User: Fold these one by one.
Assistant:
Number 1:
Amino acid sequence: MTFIHRLSRLFLRINYQFLIWLLTALVFAAVWLHTMRLIGEDRSRTLVSAENEIVNLGRLMQEHAERTFFSADQTLQHFLGEYRRHGGKIDLMAVAEEGQFDPRILISVDILDRHGFLQQSSLPFNGQVDLSDRDYFQAHRGGPGDVLIISKPMLGRVSGKWVIQLSRRFSKPGGDFDGVVVVSVDADYFTAFYSELKIGPNGVAALYDLDGNLFARHTMKKKSFVGNAASEPVFARVRRGEQDGTETFYSAADGIERMYRFEKLPSYGLLVLLGQASQDVLASQQGLRRQRIAEAVILSVLLLALSALLSWSALLRRRYLRSQRNALVRLQNLTDHVPGLVYQYLLRSDGTACLPFASAGIRNIYRLNAQAVSQDATPILALIHPDDLPGVQASVRESARTLTAWTCEYRVRYDDGTQAWLAGNALPQKRPDGSVLWHGFVMDVTQRKTIAAEVERLAFYDVLTGLPNRRLLVDRLSRALTTRASQQHHGYGALLFVDLDNFKNLNDTRGHQLGDVLLQQVAQRLAACVGPGDTVARLGGDDFVVMLAELSDDTAAATRQATEFGQKILVSLRRPYQLGDFVHHASASVGVALFNARHASVEELFKHADMALYQAKDSGRNTLRFFNTQMQTLLNQRTELEAALRVGLQQKQFLLYYQPQVDQQGQLVGVEALLRWQHPQRGLVSPAEFIPLAEETRLILPLGQWVLESACQQLQQWSLEPSKAHLTIAVNVSALQFYLESFVADVLSTLDRTGAPATRLKLELTESLLVQDIEGIVAKMLALKAHGVGFSLDDFGTGYSSLAYLKRLPLDQVKIDQSFVTDALNNAKDAALVRTTVAMAEGLELTVIAEGVETQTQCDFLNSVGCHHFQGYLFGRPVPVQELEHFFQHE
């Protein structure tokens, strides 16, 4: 037995050492794998940063080249203008002294005659210089009219320098070729600029035409590629129509791998090419790479030392095998302080089970003591939730059969009715008697389960702003479309894409932390704009989406509602943002797409809203655009007209025209004041076009006050002339004006301020005004009549006013609408309405005036039925006040 005991102890020692070195090997591998992963991440971050930098430098080169060639072309255009202005004669030096020659860019300006000989130059030259063999000259001589030609670099025959030449042709008045004007751009101007760029010792910066011909290049390497680079990959992309791009490849010129950025010039057939060598980009990362390798080496050495120490300690384990009882006590002391339950679970060959060992955690986990389960595990099984018990037992049997680790999560129910989630893990060990012993632990994971449920909920919300994310938005939008498709909802909805203008500038200048604060404040403002049935979501970055679910079923009304909401968003997002101690001003662009039952997919709707957003961006940002172009056109027209109305008010573009009102003898008894808009470009604008918009935007209030003020001033002037003092002026009053609390005070104040006689002012009301608050209307009319102001009911018979209301109104006059006057001679019903109106007015002691009288026959009919006051083209059209003088001369 002694020999066998020693042999088993030796086996345990060897096995333990094997595990140590196996674990050491695994940890060693993990350390180096982690180190390699970190090095890879460092490399990726370096390349991403380099790409961002090269994109910015590429755009800088593009802007530099664009400005340079634009400046040179402006010089050409100026000389062409001088050529035309002076009839083909031009003094080159005089023109150059006017400031059209930039010596930083241009080496010379040359003028060639129609034979190709140099006639004038900003540089001194001797003898006759023949330039007729130049490609640009031949192209101009045989080509079309005025076009810009940019020639490949060549050695100037006068300057002796390498130059890039831009040229345009002179043409006689008949179009015949008369010579060429040429500006020579110093090729070194580009290389000097490129030499200032931080592109590394192996970097390259160059200017090419679209066929790959080199115009200018800078590189620190002595070996420099010149000629044609059309075979390089970037030119293949240019030929496919790409305007810019980034690509990494080995240069055919020098075999160096570089990250290249190309940018095509917007206005010229050229492109700039910038390349940074990969070895230069990654040079800064080499130090960090060596540091990480050194750390891994040190950690590996420490790990090996620790493993050797542990292996050595395995030899000392015999000291701990002296007494199994002492070891058990130590184990008990240790496990009692471990969170959860450390245990041994024994499944006997007869199917019964017990826990030979259980730490003190059993009191917290199962609310039992160790003695209660040391011989029988039934109390534990009784605590397991009935729904989970079959799964637990099946997993135990499977672990016993396959001798694989047992892992299970299940619920337990305590005597007080509470329950908890437990997670158990154990390793099985087959014993010689056929039983299986598991060594494992159980932990309470109720809190983790709760957190997991919360995490699952947060999967539908944006972490930064707390708004719904794309997943939840798509779900809600899908349900909204499904509801409409099933005809459960007939109204429109709207999807608004909201994108902050120039948000990247804040991140680049102030950092992403302030950018996140701005996004949170934007989210709060958007959430404050919507109703309970709407959704505000964040798709990522500075992209937000608002879904309006409950709009009108009328297209125009839904468009107006979406527009008002979008404008509300734009106004809200334009308010300053307090970002710490920094006040930031921002704006947004909004793209709107309406949807109803006809929209079949979320993707289609997202595409429409995104297209509308791009239209808003392209329109100058800080604006709103609809996907529906027809709606957008109407919205633009309305917006432009509203803006013009406001400008017209400020610039006093409105006029008053007066239409005569006469009695049966044709004598002028008064006029009706009619508003006209004298637009500086469109001329006189019809009131039918701008009055409804003025009503809708409430601009009718200042317009109406101006009309009243101007009419009262005219009354005051007429009151000073005996021949005109008896005339009245009828002024139309908008319902919005009349409903103002201050209407009576405003009218009286205007009369007092202008000195106009109140008895000569007649306010014309429409029947639509009488629909609501009849008591308030009567009170205001009585208050004004007490001061002598008269009232006329306009367009009588076209509305829906009750005669019971009509007799209560303190009116002075009723106006017969011109639609009845026009048809009275041909339509018996209209004639009867006219007679009835006259008879009713006589009964109510009101005067009657007919408008729209255009023929003498109409006038005679009206006279015959008792209407003796008229207004219409038969007596005069609306005219400025000066053109009424013929009435007074007639009198």
Number 2:
Amino acid sequence: MEPDFEEEPLQAAPPTETRWNRIRAWFPHAWAAMQPDGPVRTGAALALVVTALLPVLILGLGWKPGVGRFLDLLAGPLIALTIAGFVGLGVVVAVKVAGLLPRFVRWVGVGAIAALFLVVGTIASTMPAAIIVSVLGVIEAFFGGAIAVLVVRGFDGAPLGKKILVGVSLALGLAANVFVIYWFASRGTADHLTKVPDDPTVVSQLQAPDPSKAGSFKTLTLTYGSGADRRRADYGYRVAFKTASVDATPFVKETPGWRAWLRRWYWGFDLDHFPLNGRVWYPDGPGPFPLVLVVHGNHGMEEFSDPGYGYLGRHLATHGFIVVSVDENFFNGSWAGGLKAENDGRGWMLLQHLKAWKQWNETPKNPFAGKVDMANIALIGHSRGGEAAAIAGAFNRLRYYPDDGRVELPSGFAIKSIIAIAPSDGQYKPAGQPTPLENVNFLTLQGGHDADVSSFAGLRQYARVRFTDGQPHFKAAVYAYRANHGQFNTVWGDSDYGWPKGWVLNKKPLLSGAAQRRMARTYITAFLEATMLGSGDYVSLFRDNRAGKAWLPSDIYISRFEDSSFRPVATFEEDVDLTTASLSGATIEKRGLTLWKEGKLPYRGGKGSFENSVVYLGWDRNASAVRPVPKEAGRYTITLPADASPVAGVEGATGALVFSMAQIDESPTDEATEQQATPKKAGGKSPSAAPAPKPKAKKDEKPERADLTVELTDRSEHTARLPLSAFRRMPPLLTERFTKFWTESDNYGKSEAILQTFVLPLSTFAEAGFAAGFDPAALQKIAFVFDRTTKGVIVLDDVGLAGK
């Protein structure tokens, strides 16, 4: 039976060559259909221009050329656009001459990318800026091109591939822009913060009045100055009395050219006519009252910094101090540049103000005639002003300027106390030497999240303060973990970078501005009350911050302290011999330690140092067999000379053992030494039986918080032993995060070691139940025994004895 359909003849499959030819023929057409045409390129170009234009305008808003409050809003962005335009034009010209890129990229793309890089480069280091600009530029170009497709043509008739590309570009561009806005607007993260349980040690709280609260005096205020200030009425027609100008040319180096012209135009005076301007808060009473000068640091000169200490001036005036916020804004930089090597000038200016106050106190018609206690003066400085206050204290002991003996200095004032808030150090060195301070009370404050002066530079000046006149003085340093740089000044606020760079700062961990300023009021008022008004109870706050816990905002505080009763035993500054101490005749030995060395304590990230020698002590009771450790715990012992006279004046019943110590996150084994100690075969190869390497610590895993035993032995071999934690716990290892960038460690490095001063009353050791017969007055040996934690590394400094 025949089939009812006609069978088609079999056909051979097309050869592979023919199918590949069809694919090759289709691909150019598909690719051509997806190429950006005129409207797409225009959209991409406009997107790039807008992307670059907005941050340029934002950057410009932070530039205040000084043509007026409202005109500055236009002038700053115009200047920024002009600069960005020239930068972009320069790049375009270079590319055009080279003829390497298509016309569209030459004229629009490169110029916009260059302008964008100019702005992003001001708020990020080079690598993040390059990555951000590259990724953002590509995304925004695709986003703009996709928008152009929708506006000009829509999707009608577009190939599927083009629809997918446009859709992806729109989604990616929208997501990227939302993320960028959110990232800049967010305050960051506090996930990195070190959380520490309360110290269980019971500390008696001070019964003195809370120094952060207002005192009993009603306060008044006025300003003095040139009377001719072009920018501020408070130093213009509103001054209570006028002052003469001073010549700052020996102390200030000015950048020549148009920048100098702009500064003269802005201020209306030159270096030889710097004014003496000040805001004064003072008690309503007959006096005489102690005088306190406060000076700001470097900030944009157009955003005046001196009003930012009004909170402090008003508060101290209620406690009976005359307070002056000194105007030194004309020393500051601006968008067009700043002065050079001016910090000695800042300090010299404070002495010029003191010279004027001495005269006013002696002038019958002056509002302050007879009201100023010129035998009781304090200086307070913030940032560069903190260094300036120390410079003024050093200059006050000199007759002539160290760098030019032709210049005579105003000096000889009764400066009793100096306070440096987050100070710089070493920007000026008198005669090339670090600034010395002698026989003056000193306090320095520092925030752990200070993104401007990110290392505690004030500790360098703290170490250089010397007490040689036999009078009672003390020095102290306070580190507040969540404080920043700017919130000590209400004008500067929570941004330690200028506009718009401040948007990348991680602000979430910070204390509130009110809390940080309460901390400042507490410490500064207590310090001035103790050193200028004789309120000795407040000294306990600086020996141990826990005594004023109720007065301070909740935070982690680390502090240093030393008074004029301190007798050094081992400061590690005297030589390079590990077995000798600072006290003549004292010796040092160690047993069972895996690390023992002396060296300079580095700044954060190793960029510079505190210029202070310490000893590093490491122990590991699980150390490898390569470097066997005795069964007993590691021990570091200082033996005092047999003659008790070197520590005379420190009575056993009232004296204390004093030292400063911190734990650091380092290996307790000197790896280089361990490698040298490894036995080797002939030919220099290590034996196959070498111990297996230790497992690496987990990422972000911190060592166990260290504890140890302090052991004291008298000349009759009676011993008293107490754990360090019986007095106070070792400071925790702190972690800071200053910015929201993932590469911030490239700029800031690791956390730095801030040492805590421990004051251990000798009477407490004598009262210990097991210390039968121990006589603190006959102290012979001081030992640190590392028996309470398995391993760790500590740095130790300034071991000595002091009156309690």
Number 3:
Amino acid sequence: MAPIRIRRVSVLGAGTMGAQIAGYLADLGYEIDLFDLPGVARKAWDLMVKNARCTLTGRGRITPRAMGADDAVMGQADLVIEAVFEQIDVKNQVGAAIEQHVRPDCIVATNTSGISIDEMASHRGRAFRRRYFGVHFFNPLKVLPLAELIPGAETDPELFQAFAEYAEERFGKGVVVARDTPNFIGNRIGGYALYAPFRFATAGLTPADLDLVWKTLFGWEPLKTWDIVGLGLARPVAANVYDRALDDPARDHWNPDVAQIQQLVAKGLTGRGSKTKRGFFGLGETRKQKLMFDFATGDYVPQATGSFTSLATAAKAKFPESLELLLGGTDEAAEFARKSFFGLIAYATAMVGRICDEITDIDEAMRWGFNWPRGPFEVAQAYGLGRCLQGMEAAGYGPLVGAWFRELCATPGAALYERTPAATYAPARHRMEPQALVPGGLYPEALLKDPAKGLYHNDEAAVVDVSSPAAPMCLVVFTSRGNSAGPGVLGALNEAMDWAEKRQGAVLIGNTGRDFCPGANLRYMLEQSEAGNAAAIEKLIKDGQDTTQRLTYCDALTVAAPHGYTLGGGSEIALGAKLRVVNQTVVWGQPEINPGVIPAWGGCMRLLRTMMRGLQPYYLFGEYWTREVAGDHLDPVWRLVSWAEMSRDAHHAKEMGFLEQKDTIVAAQGLGQPFVLARARAIAEGTLHAGYRRPEPFLFNLPGKALLSRFRMICDQGVIGGFFPAHNGRVATAVANVMCGGDARLGEPVTEQQLLDLERTSFMELVMTKEAQAAMRRVLKL
């Protein structure tokens, strides 16, 4: 079949999920028609930016429409996503309107969290049914990668597979294919976990205990999750399985009548989104004291855990030792842990073949949709499959265990996952199969283990060869604790540039860790400051400035691939590169004010440069560039640093000024960094092939001391009013001094090096103070 081509999308329903879908796709560049009742879509459109559904740029791609009056517009859509109220008769009514107006080649998906796809499709014509299937995005859509795709019995399998691949590569979603069963995968397994505290609770455990047990086992807290999603959803989520999945082997677990939830709902305590903003947990009148609901007294009490040795010990241990300590305990917390752990694993084994085909579908659904650090089968393997089976039998879950799991455990050396080479057990085929990798993806972990690829390494970073026939290229991978940037990272960057310059090639900077780089090595900075070693700190700052400047002006192409937290020194390294290929999920910022200093590897200068590059030279150096006009331009850039503002995602980062038009944003919530790094390599190859020239240094026109008083007054008022500490006022004033150009005069060009010198001087004046040392200790939680 022809490849899928989507430019225009109709989203029907401007409620919470419909608005999120519209905003998410608009930020990706799609033209969106957002339908709802007259006036409703317009109201949702007005609130798009305020509710962080999308950027201003994205909102410009959305057109609010009225259902009924504007239905003919659906005929222009390549994709229609129906996201109306979760009620079968409402969806059928809207489905009829869609069928009447869409083109014969239009793809139609219904966003539902558990209504039968075939039941809805039965009311439509055969041609419609072939291009119709279910999609379940998870809330919040911009944060959680999961998209469950559910084919109907008559869905065209080729079209469905093509859309699944498109949703991964273009929408950036983590796609799992679910069977058309109640609550699909995520809400079936996650729902079982959400109801566990009410089915297995042992007398004496507080709500805080229950959450801590689950956090220790699976890295996730069920009661806090209920408070986030809202307890008003508890009954319909359970009833959908209890009433429709009559063959569920743990049907009683889904009984929607839960006394604890009913008690809270009756009091209006339905979670953080309620008027009370309380559920199982809440805050005191001062918003500082943490509270939890006491079901015995019917009121809130200070949040606290009980005195359970197994839980207290396990909660402090690292995974998987934490499993050993908690599941092997003898107190009430350990008893609840065993019921929860072995019950969930047994249920998950029973659901393979019922709600999905592969164990990875369940693990990925829980990681992508419920933000678990590991899926249940990954946790089971860490504990030991044989021990899991024994534990399930001892806890009374033997009848629930899937036959495939029993068969596997009877095999010597049984495993669900293998690392070398990466493989996964396929229950339907009774064998290990190669784990799917991103086509062409770059996997730094594997490259670091290949002696033939290694070019350089130290304690903080490594350089590996990722050349292709198209271009010589190396990749700099941070290996320091938390990917922080210290002297070793700077050394590796310079080694990489030496290598690439000799070969007229490119340097990629990226990794597949949790974050690109959350900042410079703050612990090193604190140690040197408290030791009075100003020379060591100043050397690190000077080396950092020289390295980031070299990233910009060396004879090699430099490309950064940020993701996750890209903060402080990590931001400055990424800003120093000539190009950026960015994972959409990036959180970007310059929050140096939190540890009591200012950006000093060029962060102030580069953010200022990005803003001023957008101004025409005749304006920047012309008669209209007055002190007042300069101040209006400088103010938002100053606040970006002084208020430690951070982006929600890459699209937001672009509007804030961290990215330029030449940079590329890659939607990769599911395929992740290997996909982003592959795109970065391809873009680097294309740039080198097209003929690369290094940029020219930028000249600034800054007002100097004549404008500094404007910013100093804001800082002084904030300190006097008690809005922030005095040291924060000094930091913000120092940032303003850099951005105003120090002793510069309007009309006299200021060089990049002059601003770097101002950064370094201001940083050194702050970093050695007791206030900065105390701030660094707070950030490091020392």
Number 4:
Amino acid sequence: MRGNHVYSVRHPSFRTIQWAGRGSSFLVALALSATCRDPQQHRGKLKRTDADANLNNEANTSAKADSDPAARPLGRDFVAHALPGLGPRARSLHETLEKAFADKGPDYKPRTHHLIDGARPKFINRLILETSPYLLQHAHNPVNWYAWGDEPFDRARREKKAVLLSIGYSTCHWCHVMERESFEDLEIAAYLNEHYVCIKVDREERPDVDDVYMKAVHLLAGRGGWPMTTVLTPAREPFFGGTYFPPRDGARGRRKGFLTIIKDLRAKYIESPDELVEQAMQLSRQIADSAGIEPPEPVPGPGAIKSTVERISARYDPAWGGFSAAPKFPRPVNFRLLLRYARRSGSAEPTKKVADTLLKMAQGGLHDQLGGGFHRYSTDARWLVPHFEKMLYDNAQLVVAYIEAHQVTGNQVFADVATTTLDYLAREMSDPDGGFYSATDADSLNPETQHEDEGWFFTWTRAEIEAVVGADLARVVNAYYATTARGNFEHRNILHTPEAASLVASKLKMKPADLARDLSVARKKMYASRATRPPPLRDDKILSSWNGLAISAFATAGFVLDRPDYIERAEKSADFLLTQMRTPNGGLYRTFNDGRARHMAYLDDYAFLIAGLLDVHEASNNQKWLREAIALQGVLNRKYHDESSGGFFLTSHDAEPLLARQKPDYDGAEPSGNSVAALNLLRLSELTGDDDHRSRAEKLLGAQGRVLRRGGVTVPLLMSALDFYFDRPLQIFVVYPKGGNPSPLVDVIRSSFLPNRILSVVSEDKIAEHVQLVPGLSDKRALKGRPTAYVCEQNVCQLPTRDPKVLAKQLAKTTPYPSP
């Protein structure tokens, strides 16, 4: 590239891509719209047939490879072929990989089209040693993948090679596409193996690595996504970044494909290594600067909350709900803030916007009408056509959103949606030992075509419906779920409920009760039939952070809906994490899979689990969970806290040093660990009376002062923490005599939306043990031998009451925002 050039290509499926160069510089950023972060272009579906070119390429080269001694089985006991572009492996490594493959057992299904006799994988790489489902998806690519660690960088240094770093996750559609098109391609794999050292990272296992190199891609390309592709020096400094790349020139309308790009980069790396290293160092400095620690500011006033709510509300879609144009993501952190603002401001408008949005979401295809739970996001404005993957973190947060909306509005629909979502998680996403699995894929096998099609598992034709439920029930199903002969997605139907059941019953000339009965029967039959279809791939790793969110969901719903089974399920997960994912020194591991806990935990693992433990403590009245929450907060304070500026780092002080040590400050699909930590500290302060917790929360809010002052739309959950900070949180104690029944009083609390409160429900004979952790209980008693409620603010209590009506009035009082 000479002089100043900007190369641009336009394709109907993609945005305009620019490739800029100056002089002989090759600091390049290429990013297609077709990534898992940019869902607007996601509908460009790829079926298995799109890999035919790769299969043909394999057919043309496999005979040559099989005649090459380097590609033959390495001895009688070794079956896997040598990887293309490489000579035979060391015998010890080959034995290790073969044993790891054998240990997978007979049920293990290699994810590759390079098979011997249609069953055994032709290739095995080092990823077979990993537990991440995403890395195991790539364990039989012909690419010589390494997991993240010192070994690949040491090798790159010795051999003077650049490092190709590919980051994704197991349910990422475009990660699968790039795998099939490029990483399964023998020619591309051979070139990578000969000229690069290649590393695969699961972003859900290593969010620290993902965060650092995503910043590089954003700096280079202005946007990012997955799969994320970067090229690094052996010093781990990036000089190239992008997202999805098609395999060859001209594919998908691109001027340059992945093979040409890696060849050009290799040539430049050989010709001008010093120049590339200097550019990489400059980019690394920018990454480090972007993580610079800003000096703390005074905590912003409550006016910041109003400003943020106004800015979020301005984006509201009055026709279909939601706070963006298509694609629409459910963002529960927004719902939580708006409901909190409505409670203290007296404005009904935020509540209406949240309620209308949640109703539209529940009626749409985003909501799995048969199995419960929600898909990742909607590709259209109507919540009709989703991206069909399901994530644990979405569903857990949405349960809490629907439960809070139920408390505020009394609408039973919201409680029902929360219930079916929890039932889905308990039924389909639960490990027998107690943890929750992470996600399911968008794609599933279509038995008719033997292709992987997005959403096939969840969609229906009218003929399929009638074959399962019969003609009479099919009439009811088609009317209620608005199916058509033509379909609304790929000639199939995404079930949705655009009309109220009463209106459908009227059109069908049925009684509403008869309609409900028929739908119940039909749903059971259709769900059972759907369960016989080839299911989407499930990522069965257990993450501490996402399990913390699930614990909160089950505990919150269990308390509000008086469902002891949900509370027990929350406790089972908490027990699992605190036994199977605890480090010897009392900390946490990040992941658990295949019987192994791995990777030191991050800020969000601690913060989300602490929140879950506080929720299950208040739901179960079991002090064990509060003790564990306090212990984990102590670890977080010691190892992650920024003592100089406040707030928490993503990684512990003894973690692997990367190009930058990040301090999270964005509430997106997952809330920021700092936002959750701020709420945890404020709750712990109210529960335990320990002012150190409030002091740390105040310092955290000051450390994030600049982003809060800017309007806070990027940190709505942190704004909820600010709301808690400026409120007069309620300290609610219910004391009942041994053997007594506190339910009449507790039921009032269940039905009240009280986001800024702590709760202890204690039998009088247990006060002595509880008061050690919750000193506010010290002088509380069951008056006249009857359950008694105490409602306090800052340790000053209203008159104790045994009357549920009086308690309801005490709880209804709010502290309004101060006038500007």
